[in-house]
Amino acid sequence: MAYSDKVIDHYEHPRNVGRMDDKAENVGTGMVGAPACGDVMRLQIQVNDNGVIEDAKFKTYGCGSAIASSSLLTEWVKGKTIDEAEQIKNTAIAEELALPPVKIHCSVLAEDAIKAAVRNIREKRGEAVKEEAAE
Amino acid sequence: MKLPIYLDYSATCPVDPRVAKKMADQLTMEGNFGNPASRSHLFGWKAEEAVEDARRHVAELVNADPREIVWTSGATESDNLAIKGAAHFYQGKGKHIITSKIEHKAVLDTCRQLEREGFEVTYLNPREDGIVYPEQVEEAMRDDTIVVSLMHVNNEIGVINDIAAIGELCRARKVIFHVDAAQSAGRLPIDLAEMKVDLMSFSAHKMYGPKGIGALYVRRKPRVRLEAQMHGGGHERGMRSGTLATHQIVGMGEAARLVKEEMAAESKRILALRDRFWDQIKDMEEVHVNGSWEQRVAGILNVSFAFVEGESLIMSLKDLAISSGSACTSASLEPSYVLRALGVNDELAHSSLRFSFGRFTTEHEVDTAAAEVRKAVEKLRELSPLWDMYKDGIDLNTIEWAAH
Ligand SMILES: Cc1ncc(COP(=O)(O)O)c(C=O)c1O
Ligand code: FES
């Protein structure tokens, strides 16, 4: 399979690889996927009192496109509010990375990861969490 | 050293230059281009002679009679002809077939087709070591069993089945025994005068011959009958019609001749390379060889690197031509059915790579490959949340994953 230059760039030089203390009050963690499916993504965001994402870190077990999707996502969410970050769509990620149709699910995973991380920080803050329809 | 390094010999081998030279001599006006079936002139006679020489070489590789060798287009066709041919011919005696879950698709899909035609198939599960044991075959035998089809060496994990013992069981019950030997011919000694195998499939491109040519061994004593699957001019004693591809056949014959001559020395050399490779990675944490360590061919090593995913590993290893046990690339997200049948969990199956070494592999290539593998696995583990969890002492099986 031929990967786009952007996927290769993120894969070879992943941005914001790392781990935050998931117990910290200002850290939201989203862990999605399953080892048996061949992909697990952990995305963490550090959010200030104004709801702005100051830092983001990820680790991903999965194919190159999944790693690139999560790496790109950490770049995108930094500086955004959690409301804005929640709106990021997998289609935007897939388009930016020029993912082929068989790799769309890797970008879906990234969208799920940011949503889960935002939900986690909201829960920690006791905010009302929008109930999403079960997928 | 040329990059990428080819470590996928069980997918296919390059044609040996000595074989290519002989093949090239069978094509042009100046060469031996005749139709081996032409009985009325020198061109035909010469082509026929070349075909019969090649048949002898293939027969000698497995200690068979040349009259027991039928040319086909490859092991896929041989498997089809053997299993469908025998099932159709002997269906009056029964409609039960025994095979295993880790056969090549050429066997599995053929069996599926026979099921649609009303045959009943038992798919044996190998044990954890990847071996199908004679006892398992014996237990599955019924009064209406007509064919047993099992591979000699598995193409993904390299494990060897005891076909001599299984042959005895089949013969005692007068059940036809077919063996797919695509991965073993030329790598292990095979003596069909000794072993009670009735039908055996071969492929030239797994023994440094060309793709698109293979053979089926069909035993004469006791005689095995097949219903032809390809009808036409009655070539190959009616078992497989079609003008014989002289250049391909000569290529397979020469490949068989060379591989017989060189097998002993070549196996030793490849085993040393395999060990040299494994010695450089075996000390890494959570690295597992799939399939029996003792009962395997030298050239195939299937390894799971826990907590890293196979496709991304292959992406990191762009200087190595290897294959992944995970079919994530094919969008099906299915781990290999072979590893799954061995009971390898999905996570480890997704993390597996197959390395296969061959005639042109060098020590330098193996050293480079091992170093690259170490580097890539370490890099990806740094990126892996599963590795973090493992290092934290968390048992991944205790977590409820949001499977999708
Ligand atoms: C065990 C086994 N059987 C059958 C085949 C198919 O052989 P061919 O490519 O000659 O049809 C292969 C190789 O692809 C194989 O490894
Ligand atoms: S994570 Fe499996 S294809 Fe991307």
TrEMBL record, chain A:
<comment type="function">
    <text>A scaffold on which IscS assembles Fe-S clusters. It is likely that Fe-S cluster coordination is flexible as the role of this complex is to build and then hand off Fe-S clusters.</text>
</comment>
<dbReference type="InterPro" id="IPR011339">
    <property type="entry name" value="ISCU"/>
</dbReference>
<dbReference type="InterPro" id="IPR002871">
    <property type="entry name" value="NIF_FeS_clus_asmbl_NifU_N"/>
</dbReference>
<feature type="domain" description="NIF system FeS cluster assembly NifU N-terminal">
    <location>
        <begin position="2"/>
        <end position="126"/>
    </location>
</feature>
<dbReference type="Pfam" id="PF01592">
    <property type="entry name" value="NifU_N"/>
</dbReference>
<comment type="similarity">
    <text>Belongs to the NifU family.</text>
</comment>
<protein>
    <recommendedName>
        <fullName>Iron-sulfur cluster assembly scaffold protein IscU</fullName>
    </recommendedName>
</protein>
UniProtKB/TrEMBL annotation, chain B:
<keyword id="KW-0408">Iron</keyword>
<dbReference type="InterPro" id="IPR015421">
    <property type="entry name" value="PyrdxlP-dep_Trfase_major"/>
</dbReference>
<feature type="binding site">
    <location>
        <position position="243"/>
    </location>
    <ligand>
        <name>pyridoxal 5'-phosphate</name>
    </ligand>
</feature>
<keyword id="KW-0001">2Fe-2S</keyword>
<feature type="modified residue" description="N6-(pyridoxal phosphate)lysine">
    <location>
        <position position="206"/>
    </location>
</feature>
<dbReference type="InterPro" id="IPR020578">
    <property type="entry name" value="Aminotrans_V_PyrdxlP_BS"/>
</dbReference>
<feature type="binding site" description="via persulfide group">
    <location>
        <position position="328"/>
    </location>
    <ligand>
        <name>[2Fe-2S] cluster</name>
    </ligand>
</feature>
<feature type="binding site">
    <location>
        <begin position="75"/>
        <end position="76"/>
    </location>
    <ligand>
        <name>pyridoxal 5'-phosphate</name>
    </ligand>
</feature>
<keyword id="KW-0479">Metal-binding</keyword>
<feature type="domain" description="Aminotransferase class V">
    <location>
        <begin position="5"/>
        <end position="367"/>
    </location>
</feature>
<keyword id="KW-0411">Iron-sulfur</keyword>
<dbReference type="InterPro" id="IPR016454">
    <property type="entry name" value="Cysteine_dSase"/>
</dbReference>
<dbReference type="InterPro" id="IPR010240">
    <property type="entry name" value="Cys_deSase_IscS"/>
</dbReference>
<feature type="binding site">
    <location>
        <position position="155"/>
    </location>
    <ligand>
        <name>pyridoxal 5'-phosphate</name>
    </ligand>
</feature>
<comment type="pathway">
    <text>Cofactor biosynthesis; iron-sulfur cluster biosynthesis.</text>
</comment>
<keyword id="KW-0808">Transferase</keyword>
<dbReference type="InterPro" id="IPR000192">
    <property type="entry name" value="Aminotrans_V_dom"/>
</dbReference>
<dbReference type="InterPro" id="IPR015422">
    <property type="entry name" value="PyrdxlP-dep_Trfase_small"/>
</dbReference>
<dbReference type="Pfam" id="PF00266">
    <property type="entry name" value="Aminotran_5"/>
</dbReference>
<protein>
    <recommendedName>
        <fullName>Cysteine desulfurase IscS</fullName>
        <ecNumber>2.8.1.7</ecNumber>
    </recommendedName>
</protein>
<feature type="binding site">
    <location>
        <position position="183"/>
    </location>
    <ligand>
        <name>pyridoxal 5'-phosphate</name>
    </ligand>
</feature>
<feature type="binding site">
    <location>
        <begin position="203"/>
        <end position="205"/>
    </location>
    <ligand>
        <name>pyridoxal 5'-phosphate</name>
    </ligand>
</feature>
